[in-house]
Amino acid sequence: QDHVCSLPKVPFRGAPCSDAAGSQVPYSTIMKQVNSSLSGVLWDEVQKAPFYEYKDSAGQFHQVWFDDPHSISLKAAYVKSRGLRGIGMWNGNSLDYSKEAAAEQQTQAMWQALTP
């Protein structure tokens, strides 16, 4: 079904359906893949996070959830408004640090979003 992606039940740390059933995708891959995905960028208002959907070459349906500068800035603003002492981003080394202009702009925007 559209917008429904069931993770396989792979036990991990006691959770029946966990991150052990998925994998991490580098931000550079996400930025290239999202434009050719089935859905384009979708937004989940509860999670305040973007995601997209695609089918692989075997016809398997996938969802990729990620943060972008908009979602990071919302989370950073929430932290600041509550007087909390910090925020983290998973996994800064997944950004694209190549010298390509688009990559440099995307990486800079992600880091700037952490400081509202």
From TrEMBL:
UniProt keyword annotation of Cell inner membrane present: no
Signal peptide limits: none
Keywords: Glycosidase, Hydrolase
Entries under InterPro entries matching the protein: Chitinase_insertion_sf, GH, GH18_Domain-Containing, Glyco_hydro18_cat
A biological process term (GO) from this entry: chitin catabolic process
GO molecular function terms attached to this record: chitinase activity
Gene3D superfamilies: 3.10.50.10, Glycosidases (3.20.20.80)
Protein's name in the database: DIAC acetylchitobiase
Protein species of origin: Tychaedon coryphoeus
Gene that encodes it: Ctbs
